[in-house]
Amino acid sequence: ALALLQNSSVLAVAAFAGGFAVPLLLSTGRSSHVALFGYYAVLNLAILFIAWQRAWRILNAVGFIATFAVATAWGVLQYQPEHYASAQFFLLLFVLIYLLTAVLYARNTPTRLGSAVDSMLVFGTPLIGFGLQAGLVRQDEFGSAFSALGFSALYLATALLLARRKASGERLLI
Q1: Best label site of 51, 90, 127, 143, fewest CB within 10 Å?
Q2: Across-strand partners of 114?
């Protein structure tokens, strides 16, 4: 809130970097992944709210990198099939948050040639998200295929919704 009131992206980055680091610094290794990703969800929803107000690309990058780096590390080191439902929920939530953050960034950064596009969010979210999703469904015969279908449907629906708004500045994003 102070970062928004003072229009200080530096303050926001410092606060969120610390916020993302706290569970890692205080972890005993026995904590719940639901608590960790629930906490990260709150941080990411706050970043989404800030993205609605301001186009702070560096803050989006901090949240994106921290979230997906920790999710990848957890997936590689601690994921078990009994965690599927909760891991699936949080992965979908984080993908949606950063898809919306990319749209908001484009909306909030008009240029002479149209809206600016944050390529890290636009391309990184589906690439990393699909990689993590493929890890979750690797035991299913057609899990990756259905996951690819889901990701393509999500991005096609997003492009169609943006195109219907007829916002000429978002053509590059579409």
Answers
A1: 127
A2: 111
Q: Rounded to an integer, what is the distance from CA 102 to the centroid of its chain?
A: 9
CB 70 within 8 A of CB 82: no
CB-count burial class (<10 Å; 0-12, 13-18, 19+) for 25: exposed
Find out whether 143 and 137 touch, Cβ atoms under 8 Å. Answer: yes
Interior CA angle at 110 toward 107 and 116, to 5°? 75
Does this model's pTM top 0.85? My answer is yes
Q: Which helix (H) or strand (E) holds 114?
A: strand 114-115
Q: Report, as an integer, the average pLDDT of 68-90.
A: 94
Structure tokens at 4: 């928004």
Supply the Cα-derived Rg of the chain in whole angstroms.
Answer: 17
Q: Which residues contact 11 (CB under 8 A, 6 or more apart)?
A: 2, 3
